[in-house]
Specification:
mainly alpha, 12 helices, 55% helix, elongated, disordered N terminus, DNA-binding, DNA binding, Homeodomain-like_sf, transcription, SANT/Myb, Myb_TF_plants
DNA sequence: AAGGCGGGCAACCGCGAGGTA
DNA sequence: ATACCTCGCGGTTGCCCGCCT
């Protein structure tokens, strides 16, 4: 028996979300919290399917999302994690609490993949040089990159520290009924700023909810941050994975010399470096 | 100025996993 | 045990915008 598509019913709106819809969704989540997405459309009056609501919340409205271009550290961290984890964007996103899996996926597909392809072309042209690269050189190179990745992680972790919200009026667009809102995503800047305002509005609300699990999942993937998960696991005596361990070592001030010994690289790790 | 083209990104689709009755 | 429901994930699509000719 085939399963009907979730949004098979008629009258379900598709396409870009309007600020009004965003506001409806945010208001509902402020009151009930994220989850039970099935009930969201009927309870809010939104003509959207539950998946669309969840996606909108996860990717754009949830607090703590950083928009805009990726930093070099984030870029390197993504490249490393992609090499280690493959296209498991949710897992990768859990190490970049301010980025969504969709964002990372898009960034990978539009920027990093090309960048790496280009780099690989250069690599192939100078393959003789790379083939002769001895393991020690590669280790040093990896260590440098690992250090950069760890730095990025520390930066990401500092996100958890209380950051005072600017004193500016946070929601000039949302709560000015006659404000000229863009009819489409044409004016992305204006629209994004209204979305950002919603998120920032919600930050206070999220902080008032001390629930650890939610705090983690809301700052990472929807399944919860691997990092948060492992930290709490570690506290409870369960071992951290090696990746989580080395990512965390330096961030907790226990930096140690790192070598490839004991590291299990993924099968698809660039062999020219080995 | 206008049309074509490609890049970037938001949103959708389909599948699988986990939970539950 | 199993059928159904809900959710999350990854791949893909389609729209919009800026650049180029």
């Amino acid at each position: 028996m085939g399963r009907p598509p979730c949004c098979d019913k008629g009258g379900v709106k598709k396409g870009p979300w309007t600020p009004e819809e965003d506001l409806m969704l945010v208001s509902y989540i402020q009151e009930h919290g994220p989850g039970n997405w099935r009930a969201v459309p009927s309870n809010t009056g939104l003509m959207r399917c539950s998946k669309s609501c969840r996606l909108r919340w996860t990717n754009y409205l949830r607090p703590g999302i950083k928009r805009g271009s990726f930093t070099e550290q984030e870029e390197k961290l993504i490249i490393h994690l992609q090499a280690l984890l493959g296209n498991r964007w949710a897992a990768i996103a859990s190490y970049l609490p301010e980025r969504t899996d969709n964002d990372i996926k898009n960034y990978w597909n539009t920027h990093l993949k090309k960048k790496l392809t280009k780099a690989q072309d250069g690599t192939e042209r100078s393959s003789n040089h790379h083939r002769s690269m001895i393991k020690g050189q590669w280790e040093r190179r990896l260590q440098t990159d690992i250090h950069t990745a760890k730095q990025a992680l520390r930066d990401a972790l500092s996100f958890d520290e209380e950051k005072p919200l600017p004193n500016e009026d946070l929601h000039p667009i949302l709560f000015k009924p006659n404000h000229a809102l863009p009819s489409s995503s044409t004016n992305n800047v204006v629209y994004a700023s209204s979305t950002e305002n919603i998120s920032r509005l919600l930050q206070g609300w999220m902080r008032s909810k001390p629930d650890k699990t939610r705090a983690c999942s809301d700052s990472g993937s929807s399944q919860g941050s691997v990092l948060c998960e492992s930290v709490s696991s570690g506290e409870e005596g369960k071992p951290l994975s090696w990746l989580e361990t080395w990512l965390f070592e330096e961030s907790t001030g226990q930096d140690q010399e790192m070598t490839l010994d004991g590291l299990q690289l993924p099968l698809d790790y660039p062999t020219e470096f080995l």
